[in-house]
Write a structure and sequence with these properties.
The structure holds two protein chains of two kinds.
Chain A (H helix, E strand, L loop, with lengths): L1 H6 L8 E6 L3 H13 L2 E6 L2 H10 L4 E4 L8 H10 L8 E5 L4 H9 L4 E4 L5 H9 L3
Parallel strand pairs in A: 1-2, 1-3, 3-4, 4-5
Chain B lengths: L1 H8 L5 H25 L4 H25 L4 H29 L3 H23 L5 E7 L2 E6 L3 H20 L5 H27 L6 H6 L1 H15 L4 H22 L4 H75 L8 H31 L8 E4 H18 L3 E5 L7 E4 L1 H18 L4 E7 L5 E8 L6 H4 L22 H11 L3 E6 L5 E8 L5
Helix pairs in contact in B: 2-3, 2-9, 2-10, 3-4, 3-9, 4-5, 4-6, 6-7, 7-9, 10-11, 11-12, 12-13, 12-16, 13-14, 14-16
Classes of the chains: A alpha/beta, B alpha+beta.
Amino acid sequence: MDENSTAGVFDEPAKKTILLIEDDPLLVKMYREKFEMEGFRVISAEDGEKGLDAAFNEKVDIVILDLLIPRLSGMDFLKKLRESEMSKDLPVIVLSNLSEREEQDKARQLGVKEYLLKANLTPTQVVEKIKLYV
Amino acid sequence: MNEILSFIITREIPVYNKIAVLVINFSAAVLLLIVFNHNKLKDIQSKIFMAMGAFILLWVDFAYLARIAGFNHNLSLFFLRIAWIATPPVFYTVYLTSVLLVEKFDKYKKASYSLLILSLILSAATASTNLIISDVKFTGSTLDIVYGVGFYPFLVAIFAVMAFTVIPMLHVQLKNNTKIFLIGVLIFYVANLIFNITLPVFLGITHYYFFGDYSTIILLGMTAYAIIRHGLFDIKVVTTELLTFIIWIILLIKLFTPQSTTDTIVDSLTLTLMVIFGILLVRSVIKEVDQRRKLQELTQKLRELDKQKDEFLSVAAHELRSPLTAIKGYLSMVIEGDTGEISDKAKSFLLDSTSVTERLIRLVNNMLNVSRIEEGRIVYQLENVDLIKAVQEVYFTFRFEAERKGLEIKLTVPDGVRDNVMVDPDRIKEVVGNFLSNAVKFTEEGKVDVKIGNPTPESVKVEIADTGPGISESEQNKLFSKFYRAESTEGKTMGTGLGLYITKLLVEEFGGKIGLESELGKGSTFWFELPLVKAT
């Protein structure tokens, strides 16, 4: 975290970056609005492959991940993320509407910080969770 | 050895020869019956098999009759010529079966049938002439066939058919059933080459003729196996068929052994009864096996449907939750002032929208949960949970809704209440949510009281009392059953009748009890009690 604040001097150094991987444009718009309001920089990706691309090439502090996304599923995204040395410790919060316990267990095994059910939380509550980890 | 030989040579047909012919006839009948029973002549293979069996029986039986009729020269010759008519078709049907089993039949279908008919016409036409069988002679007591000039071209044709049958089969990868057929064919051919061709035609030894004829039964048996194995085959049915047919044969043989008239009548009756009961038995076994197979297919289909239903539910719930998330999220942002100040009136309207949205979300959750809980497919994440904290969390989400409705709402937790339970935290919140949602939904005025306490040192109880319409005693028992909705609530609010049902399933899953006290007009108290985690 410290490394981030010194490296990003040219571009609003205090801002933490959220990578939001979500395929529903309406939800992307809503969360982006809220997160930016709370002082975060937001990068969004509508599928797993683009998400992985952003995770590897951008300075990201936390990933908010939907599981049912095109191309590369959320689980496969997580596996790939964990395989790479540079991103294996990146905090990830799953924000999905999949409530199956099997999915939750799998995600937890892949080291996600939280498994949140989208419909159960307001954007404010999601932000509260994010602030626990960045 | 010499004794046996002289026995064979004598005109008197040896007893075991008679028995052999009888056994061949009945084994062939059994095999034809089994194949017929299984394939009902629906496929080309069983049709050809039937033809093959018929030609073999003609061939074996009339050659045998010719020997018996040795006392009458013309009759013997007549029988022998009938046997001859069946000879080319026997070889030809064997060939056709081999073509079918290596699955190249369609290509030569028309040609194959034409050739079969042609061979029949040729053999029938030559039968009345001296071309093939010109005469029959009895040297002493042995039957000798005097072949005509046409016999030698015929022999060449037989060799050709044999080669056409066997050679292609040696060149393809054979299935197990086809290998069995090939063995049968080889035994038949070798026996024929030795006992029906080489010995009588070239060496003039005719006494072993029947070895060639009787090898047909091995051919028939192995072919039947190959055909049945190829299609539907059930060991239970075939065993029943075999046992039944064997009993018939034994009874029939007994019938033909010399005995008194009374015995013959009794045996005939027994045989008739056994035939009738045997057919009924075989049919019922076939029916049973068929039903079992259908049942298996149905079960398989149901499993697939069930899986599809689950997938559908999961996807549908996901799809429903997405827009609900957006509605709920935007509403909360406006209410929280993210878009600037709004009037109190606007805020109260938006809060109402929020609670309706929450109800919809709960509905979706309940629908998704019910089938999973029922089928025991839900995996519970059991954790040490502070029940008070969980209840508080849910309580706060309902407080605004209750207050907006003008209800007094209160959570009472006496000091020193022990609340450590082993439950799935998400599920227990659903339980509290379902209770609170009902209390707020059905109470128009008055209050909702939530109390937590320890009725016994080993348990913790959550009570939710409302001043709603109350529930009659007769309805109280049905309240926790699936899809049941109290009459007093009908037409009032939406609901699936799943909430309390799921609540009960969940509480019982966590080793607890659930119940209510209520009186019409005086409100209801719903409660659940969970065992405490024993302090270590």
